């Protein structure tokens, strides 16, 4: 079976991350917006930023940027989706974040930063290796010497992929089902997001909304080579924000690169 994962490549970021997606993206106090997740994230970013400024690539609705600014770090964010930027502007505390509309792989902003960061797999939203390398180079262009570029990224479990089962379930929770269809030849995958809404005729009648997001996954070794091409060296790699060791069983990593 051959998967065609290019059918949504023509969609813009405004279409992929539209008003509905932006309005429902934040989950205050729970999930990726919980204190258990954000606490270690912010602690790490504050330590890396030091006395300098931070630049978030693909800032989205400000889930990380706003609380980071509240911790005293001056934050600028680049975001390509206007609906996500609009949602950021409606969020309490957004006035502390300088938001710029643009592409994280090419857009330059004024000033010098001690930290550039990408969280929650967003470098994989760039769908070619060339664009991902440009992102590294763009990060390097914003950093002062010795500055850091941090990337949070998942590691796909390709051991569970086969021609007879080319899709993986990555999330099952009340009202939501997430599936990844993976093409290992191109390192491309399409995430399918199925959201169930209670029907108007009672709890047994439900409607479903299906959204899609395309990605290109990157192996850690490939990520390191991208860093080398942009003048970085790997400073650390952990399995999560708390600093757990990264192993062959890890399903994610937080990698920090230092600009030479």
UniProtKB/TrEMBL annotation:
<keyword id="KW-0489">Methyltransferase</keyword>
<keyword id="KW-0808">Transferase</keyword>
<feature type="domain" description="Methyltransferase">
    <location>
        <begin position="55"/>
        <end position="147"/>
    </location>
</feature>
<dbReference type="GO" id="GO:0032259">
    <property type="term" value="P:methylation"/>
</dbReference>
<dbReference type="Pfam" id="PF13649">
    <property type="entry name" value="Methyltransf_25"/>
</dbReference>
<dbReference type="InterPro" id="IPR029063">
    <property type="entry name" value="SAM-dependent_MTases_sf"/>
</dbReference>
<dbReference type="InterPro" id="IPR041698">
    <property type="entry name" value="Methyltransf_25"/>
</dbReference>
<dbReference type="GO" id="GO:0008168">
    <property type="term" value="F:methyltransferase activity"/>
</dbReference>
<protein>
    <submittedName>
        <fullName>Methyltransferase</fullName>
    </submittedName>
</protein>
């Amino acid at each position: 079976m051959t998967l065609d994962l290019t059918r949504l490549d023509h969609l813009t970021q405004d279409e992929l991350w539209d008003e509905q997606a932006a309005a429902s993206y934040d989950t205050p106090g729970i999930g990726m917006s919980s204190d258990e997740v954000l606490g270690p994230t912010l602690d790490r970013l504050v330590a890396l930023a030091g006395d300098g400024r931070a630049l978030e690539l693909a800032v989205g609705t400000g889930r990380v940027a706003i609380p980071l600014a509240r911790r005293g770090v001056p934050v600028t964010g680049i975001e390509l989706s206007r609906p996500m930027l609009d949602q950021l502007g409606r969020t309490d505390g957004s006035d502390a974040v300088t938001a710029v509309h643009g592409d994280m792989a090419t857009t330059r902003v004024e000033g010098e930063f001690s930290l550039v960061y990408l969280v929650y797999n967003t470098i994989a939203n760039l769908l070619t290796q060339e664009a991902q390398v440009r992102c590294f180079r763009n990060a390097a262009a914003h950093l002062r010497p010795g500055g850091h570029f941090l990337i949070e990224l998942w590691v796909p479990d390709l051991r569970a992929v086969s021609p007879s089962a080319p899709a993986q379930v990555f999330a099952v929770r009340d009202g939501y089902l997430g599936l990844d269809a993976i093409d290992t030849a191109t390192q491309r995958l399409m995430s399918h997001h199925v959201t169930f809404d209670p029907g108007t005729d009672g709890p047994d009648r439900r409607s479903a909304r299906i959204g899609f997001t395309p990605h290109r996954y990157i192996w850690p070794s490939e990520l390191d080579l991208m860093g080398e091409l942009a003048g970085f060296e790997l400073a650390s790699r952990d399995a999560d924000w708390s600093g757990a060791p990264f192993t062959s069983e890890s399903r994610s990593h937080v990698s920090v690169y230092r600009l030479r």
